[in-house]
Write a structure and sequence with these properties.
- Helix content is 80%, strand content 0%.
- By secondary structure, it is mainly α.
């Protein structure tokens, strides 16, 4: 990378600098959201496993089982909302 002359750098407005960083920040935000979705996927798999274990106990504690199912539904909803937001904020094609 070749550096610009100092006079030109001083002429850059803050907006211009921010504008040049926008695509990088957008990629960073998308990757951060994808990481959060992966964490939610892991949590969903863990909760599904725990629910199966809880359902196989004797006697079944239905209150705990229902609480776990509620937690799973919430995490699944969060995952769905993350995916929807990523699709809307970072469309494949720029309109």
């Amino acid at each position: 990378m070749k550096l610009l002359p100092y006079k030109k750098i001083l002429k850059f407005s803050k907006e211009k600098i921010e504008e040049s960083l926008a695509p990088i920040r957008a990629r960073q935000a998308k990757k951060q959201a994808e990481l959060e979705m992966a964490k939610l996927d892991e949590k969903i798999a863990t909760l599904e496993s725990k629910i199966t274990e809880k359902a196989s106990e004797h006697p079944i504690d239905f209150h705990q089982l229902i609480d776990m199912q509620d937690e799973l539904a919430l995490v699944e909803r969060k995952r769905t909302m993350f995916e929807k937001n990523v699709q809307e904020l970072f469309p494949d094609k720029d309109d």
